[in-house]
## 1
Amino acid sequence: MTILEIIQRSTDYLQRHGVPAPRLQAECLLAHVLKQKRLQLYLQFDRPVPEPALEQMRQLLRRRAAREPLQHLVGTAAFADFELLTTPQALIPRPETELLLEHAGRWLAGRLASAAGPLPQILDWGTGTGCLAIGLARQFPAAQVTAVDVSAEALALARLNADKNGVSGRIEFVESDGLAALPADRRFDLVVANPPYIPSAEIEQLEPEVREHDPRLALDGGPDGLRFYRRLAVECPPFLAAGGTLWLELGHGQAAAVCQIFESHGWRVMALEQDYQRIERVLGVERHTVPPPVQR
Ligand SMILES: C[S@@+](CC[C@H](N)C(=O)[O-])C[C@H]1O[C@@H](n2cnc3c(N)ncnc32)[C@H](O)[C@@H]1O
């Protein structure tokens, strides 16, 4: 069979199994099997594919038809301008989160340009694959980054990803429920968080790729999806340096409720940014009161 025939048959097969964007998925899987870039396939449509590669493709197609995510089948995901290893132990990074990286990074760049100071200290709450911690460490070579997660498995993957991207020397990984394991005297100029924000009862309605293959710990935001925003509003202030800010990813339709939570805990909304579907997706907040001491 030729490359074009395999793409056509695979597309039909994935379509029959209800997989979204079946042609793109078929091309990505075949490119992975043949160790080529996807667009290179277009230059070789008539090339015959040897049997071992065909057999590997059949196996991957069966798994994709059973709704295993493409990123788990190929083992990697693109994020911003770098690549991450992905496993079922951590959330597959999403394009929305690239927007959080972009806005938080822009804020820190502006701050560094306007005031000389000590090395910027950055905290990534709930690091997962490490996408935000790594993105910020790459963008700010002078910064020290701390990445926390309650999941030891996610942290192990994040460490591998930091290594893969050459920034493991500048990220400290800490297993912690929220900020509980951090020393009380730590202060951060920038905190980023993409917390679990799906209301518990809605998880069963998500696509199978998400509800069966992303860790529940990374999805479940409690009964109304807002559990971790409430925690961050209360737990973050003692760890903010003077003038420090917190940047958050928001779930669809959560902006008003999350702003209200932060404003009622002495925060001020600095920025509320939309994604490409015009959904309010990224919130930047700062304190307008003196941070209270750490209470344990
Ligand atoms: C939505 S995922 C985000 C992962 C990654 N930052 C990203 O944007 O792709 C939320 C992350 O928060 C972590 N998490 C959940 N509860 C936590 C807690 N109590 N303390 C710290 N991290 C937590 C999960 O393990 C998961 O890695």
Note: Residues 90-91, 93, 97, 126-129, 131-132, 148-151, 154, 177-178, 194-196, 217-218 surround S-adenosylmethionine (CB under 6 Å).
## 2
Amino acid sequence: MKSVEGPRSTMESRSHAGAVPSTLTRHQLLDEQGVVAEDPLLSPYAADITVEELQHLYRSMTLARRVDEEGTSLQRQGQLVLWVPLRGQEAAQVGSVWPTHPSDRIYPSYREHAVAFERGVPPAELMRYFRGLSAGGWDPEQYNLNPYTVVLGSQTLHAVGYAMGASLDRKAAEDSGSPLDGDPEAVIAYFGDGASTEGEVHEAMVFAASYDAPVLFFIQNNQWAISVPFATQSRVPLATRAAGYGFEGLRVDGNDILGVVAATRYALEKLRRGEGPVLIEAETYRMGAHTTADDPTKYREREEEDQWGHLDPIERLRVHLRTVHCVDQAFFDTVAAENDAVARQMRADVLAMSPPEFVDRFDGVYAEPHSLVAAERAEYLDYQAGFVAQDDSQDSDSEGVGA
Ligand SMILES: Cc1ncc(C[n+]2csc(CCOP(=O)(O)OP(=O)(O)O)c2C)c(N)n1
Ligand SMILES: [Mg+2]
């Protein structure tokens, strides 16, 4: 079994005064050199992964990174309101969503672009949210993927409620003598190290444990919550918290695609057997800024970024494919060209989207028509009409004073 630690700076920050040394195993299958190590718990869950599947995982991870780069460029060019980079977290995201069934429900936070793409959301559809054109960006029912949640941690309660409902439905069907077909549903709630300390997450974990809800709490510990380092967020690895609620917590190298796939498969099996929730803490790193509105040079050292740069999850899989499976350069070149084409098409689609109309905001307040909202909408249109009339009169008088 390989029990490893992350880069030095992270571990040093853990030796913060008052920190409790943890003996919790940090699982890893694909090491920093791209070599597969044995792990008694996780190895059986990765043993049957084929080269074709590894190539799929590589394609998904690199596509996410390429689209991510394009998202930053589009925002810098004024075409998106904001962009939330995922660079560095591709293995944690792709590795955890790939083993799910389409019928499993996913509750993301706001950085899970690779999760969304793997679920089939077209990149341009996701961009609608970041262009301010939609409050959600995609149809949650079509992809079984809830809209992004910016209110930290609140999606964990939604996920637990959904999971409780799913297992109660199944039980009711069984009791009535007509059991539901297919595997029991599993639910994943994604959140970060920062969100993990929100009150809602505590409440969600208590409920999930009490009702054996089939929910996987998947934490991407990317070491930062905007400018707050993990050492301030928690004195212990977050996976250790699960024991306090009465369920299993796994700590895995989040830059190791095989480790993440195996840990997730293990957890999903447990959920489907009705053995309650599981928590996975995937230790990874946010290589870029928190968002395009953030400048990480203000609060973290270049040295730390360089250390984690050597643990790049994509590079690790690339080395593994090349050295262990003899995948040739043509494959990597083809994938890069395909990803470029997807990014180009996404850019064209985004630029073709007309800018949002402010008046449409009123349509998203309630699902049903509401007299108060209708009155406010009419008042707004009336107000806008006033500007048009004034502009017209200015034109006719030739006394434009400018905007
Ligand atoms: C309830 C709430 N409090 C504060 C914020 C502001 N906020 C947005 S992102 C963020 C940091 C979250 O860090 P983490 O959970 O580690 O996720 P990451 O951004 O690193 O993916 C904060 C404090 C918010 N969105 N919601
Ligand atoms: Mg974080």
Note: Residues 358-397 form one domain.
